[in-house]
Fold this protein.
Amino acid sequence: MQNMNSRVFQELTTPSLILDVGRVRANAARMTAIVNRQNVRLRPHIKTHKCIEVARIQTADHSGAVTVSTLAEARAFAANGYNDITYAVPIEPGKFGEVVSMVREGVDLKVITDDPSTPAGLNEVAARRGATVGVFLEVDCGDHRSGVQPESGQAMEIPRAISDASSLSFAGLLTHGGHSYGAKTIDEVKAIARQERDVVVDLAGRLRSEGIDVPTVSIGSTPSISHADDLTGVDEVRPGNYIFYDAFQATIGSCWFDDCALTVLAAIVHRSDEKIIIDAGAIALSKDRGPVDRDPGCGYGRVLDLDGNDLGLRVAGVSQEHGMIPVADPDLLEKLNVGDRVRVLANHSCISAAQHPHYNVLENGEIVERWEIHRGW
């Protein structure tokens, strides 16, 4: 299947990532407008892209603070001038030493916990090595992945233990409205955004009434921040996926499909009656099924031509290196030949990006740069 971009993509190895940098810039500008309107700080979650160049686009008009999901991300970003970092996975003892080492090197690396025993253990390591570590209390606002229950005794006890520790500082409250991804309407997303806000703002008030300073109230998910109508009492937000978006976000209404910036370039390796096979399978695309309750036929991604036009096809099945695409239209099937390239808009850009070593950056119809992805733990 030939089109205007066939030359540009034919020279690339498949499977590989195509990043539309114009859409990245537009998505960054849209989120900047949201946080400015809501009068909150932006601390984007860079797990979506793990890329210095992308982070520079999304932090250009902000403080430069970022959120990471691995210490490998923290190391890579600290080495490239990012000093204000929140590691937003509950800290466990096996990582105390590395965190303290980074803090001693001058990185403002804050961690999170929901565990009553963690403050004492982290404080012992930090005190022994002459460092002070900032620690957030993670609060469950309804996602039920991790975090203390806001009405529990631990919601008051853990912040006090952090505040009283000699080598820890209480950074504040952090939550994630991940259940917004399961909302079926925009009104449901807005209700979750209000819940996300209210849970931590209320707890911050109770802690302050007990004499515990709460420097920062931090919330965030791309759906909830995209649709929040009032963030009074919130200091910072941590959306991540918004910088790329994906088929999931477009389906649930966080964006339009034309906002999605990341696709996977794949080659057709087999054609037979009513189907083609591409060389992008579970490793290149991920096995994330996406919003099956909203779009039961979503499969593992939407198939686009090289200009980004939706062909009306879906990756219906994946094995490790194979993606199976049913093609019911015989005229369309006839145009799809072995060796032709297609682009797949995957369901979850964060997971898809993490499978690849770099982005091929697309601008004005040309591949202009290659940006490294900093993977690992």
In short: Residues 155 and 247 are 36 Å apart (CA to CA). The first strand starts at residue 16 and ends at 20.
